Amino acid sequence: MQLQQLRYFVAVAQTRHFTQAADILGVSQPTLSKQIHTLEASLGAPLFERIRGDVTLTVAGQTLLPLAQRMIADADAARDAVQDIVGLRRGEVRLGATPSLCSSLVPAVLRAYRSAHPDIELHITEGSSQDLIGGLLAHALDLALIVAPEQGVDPALEFTELLRESLVVASVAAGPAPTVGRQLELAELRHTPMVMFRAGYDIREVTLHACERAGFTPKLAVEGGEMDAVLAFVEAGLGVALVPSMVLANRPLLRATPLAPPGMRRTIALARRRGAILSHAAAALRDVVVEHIASGELPFGVRAL
Fold it and tell me: pTM score, two decimals?
């Protein structure tokens, strides 16, 4: 029993006429009759009685009709649901991103994605790169924008490097600058109060290791903040902080001072599970991320790869 045969059967049952049903379906009358006979043979019972040109349903046909109509409706609903998803009229995508990227790159990406696909549900998770990697491995995320690990890359994940970003010294724009008209040697912050991120934050470890290599332990004014809190503390004049250059794009109260060569940089990557088939919604978001970065609309200190 095939779905096409059921469609033929329902058309004849509704019109009570083989030729009219064939015309509606766009097939020849012999083709339709043959498929009906095949269906009757597979079911082991006649579905129609043909008496002097009249076509009526047998008891078997009356029993089959509501079932066939329901099966056709379910098949059509399934087809429409899949086409909605393929055509990005429905669906959802789960994106993870670090706090610094959520406050800089992600809003512009989501605006472009929402404009192109307004009916897709977006679920955003903010967390450290390690937490987001855990989310990918647990199948809780489809994609994640993270700081690319320099070592210990999980073979279950696939990373696409997107851009390289400089870390800069953030200080109050209205106050005295750490340097005037030149780049800053990190060791010059030896006696400058610093605002430090919480434990587990990617930039915290990078900052502490860099200060250690420069031969000093930073003097901490405030410790334990998230990105927004750290920037607010710097704006309040509590100290300076090493931050990604992108997060200062919309912070007019803060000044960005570059570090002297070799400086400090990090690579931003788009991560996904290796071998996983992305949904159409997730694949479209991946494309928007790549297109946005390729457009060149990146702030100072950021270079596309």
Answer: 0.70
Q: Residues 193-223: pLDDT tens digits?
A: 999 998 878 888 889 999 999 999 999 999 9
- For residue 90, give both structure tokens: 């429905």
To 5 degrees, how large is the angle CA 27–CA 28–CA 31? 95
- Exposed/middle/buried for 219, CB within 10 Å: 0-12, 13-18, 19+? middle
Q: Which of 247, 148, 277 is nearest to 206 (CA)?
A: 148
pLDDT at site 178: 62
Q: Can you tell me which residue has the tokens 């605002």?
A: 195
Question: What are the chain's domains?
Answer: 3-86 (1.10.10.10), 92-163+266-304 (3.40.190.10), 165-265 (3.40.190.10)
Q: Quick one: which of 241, 245, 228 has its CA closest to 299?
A: 245
